[in-house]
Specification:
The complex is a heterodimer of chains A (270) and B (223). Chain A is α+β, with helices and mostly antiparallel strands and 270 residues long. Chain A has 2 domains: 2-37 and 137-264, no CATH class; 43-130, Alpha-Beta Plaits. In chain A, 71% of the residues lie in helices and 9% in strands. Chain A contains 10 helices and 4 strands. Chain A has a 4-stranded antiparallel beta sheet. In chain A, helix 1 runs antiparallel to helix 6 and helix 1 (2-41) crosses helix 10 (242-264). The longest helix of chain A is centred in the middle third of the chain and has 53 residues, at 132-184. Chain B is α/β, with parallel strands linked by helices. Chain B has a domain at 93-155. Chain B is built from 6 helices and 10 strands; from the N terminus they run E-E-E-H-E-E-H-E-H-H-H-E-H-E-E-E. In chain B, a hairpin with a 5-residue loop joins strand 1 (3-13) and strand 2 (19-29). The longest helix of chain B is centred in the last third of the chain and has 17 residues, at 173-189. Classes of the chains: A alpha+beta (270), B alpha/beta (223). Chains A and B meet through helix 6 of A and helix 2 and helix 3 of B.
Chain lengths: 270, 223
Amino acid sequence: MKSIKNHFSLVIALVSILFSIQVFIIVDRSINAYKENLANNYSIIMVAQVQIPEEKIKAINPLIVNVSELNPEGVIKRLNTKMDKKNLELLKITLPKFYKLKLAHFPSPQEIERLTKNLLATKSVQKVENFSSNHDNTFKLLLLFKDVISVFSLSIFIVTILLILKELRIWQFMHNERMSIMGLFGAPIWLSSAVLFRLSIVDAIIASFVTFIIFSYIDSSLWIARQFESIGIEVVVFDKVEDFSLLFAIAMLVSVLLASLILLGHKEEV
Amino acid sequence: MDKVIIAENLSLAYSNDETIINKVNFSVDSGSFVFITGASGSGKSTLLKSLYGGLKPDQGSLIVGGVEINGVSRKKLNFLRRHIGIVFQDYKLVKEWTIEKNITLPLLINGYEKNVTQNQVDSLLKHVRLKHQAGKYPLELSGGEQQRVAMARALSHNPILILADEPTGNLDDYSSGLIWNLLEGANTQLKTTVIVVTHHIPATMGIDYKHFHIEYGSINEVN
């Protein structure tokens, strides 16, 4: 019972750390997926007096990945009833060229501003519509969401580290006596601290598997999948190989670091 | 005869405090039985502590089992301690281990094989009359029983030197008798050097022994 209690306190602290890290990873993935989604739906309209080759437009700024000229036929058709054919042909020639520019990723307000300036500085470009008002609001909302989650994860991380430091003092008290007694009978440091490291490694393994079970369950949840679907994104909640390896490595690192700190703080009682 | 302990101009002090043992000279022959007596606070336990390297000499030289304690490396000190059996006044048993495992500790550290370890532990448990309590934890035993476990642990690896600090202090006659018998047995049968710090030398001692008395920081042999 006492042994289970000893394991329990560190396992809980480790699971909290791993949980906050994985939540941060999921939020980061969601935001990136959402940004990609926004980038796919977001475009800039450029108006030029004359036709500009696609390659020349792409060369204006590396953010531009796709250029498509908007067909003026639709607008002209609406005017069709009021104008004769000759005037329509004339209008077609004199009408400015409209381009829809697709970007590599969802840009920041600064990138948009720079891109607009670059485009307007190009000869024969008359106007650029970047829908900056809508864009800025969406982008700021995303950043706010990411910041809130980061602060939340960081808070959990700090509280857990404080818990672990408290645990460290308990462990120091718990293991110091045994390590000192072993030292009095000539045990080398690796032997007297073996129990400590074994305990911390076992706890790291338990915490990793508990986290694995929690996130595997969340990953298989239809409710979660529907939430992501409703905002039009698809996110890998928990990669059973990549994420588990990362969490396992972190758990090992934290618990071995904890054991090493106890070892460094060990004072032999004689 | 070989000397297991040689002290020359040995002074002992805790940090910068007053000197407890002041420039003493003495030696202990291999295979002898030695009592160290003295009033409370005279430095008996401090001297014993220096013999297993728990306190380094402030001045002079102290050689135990061929190892100079002054400036000894951790590795060499561990090597020396593996050949010493120590009995502490406060037992120093690992509370979360059974008494069987506590007795096994020096054997484990010395790398004995499992079957040797088990036979030795069984035999020692019989000697200290605790065979029926092998699976118990130290805090489930009385003080006398805990001291018998500590005694068995000190003997388990057949050390060249046994250091005992007031091994029978506060014990009943039965436990005291068992402990003196074990110490005498180790000395006579295994030729182990035994050094005991005590207030009183038992009247029933059936073997020859050497007696040092500590007073005012000096050590004198009593005839």
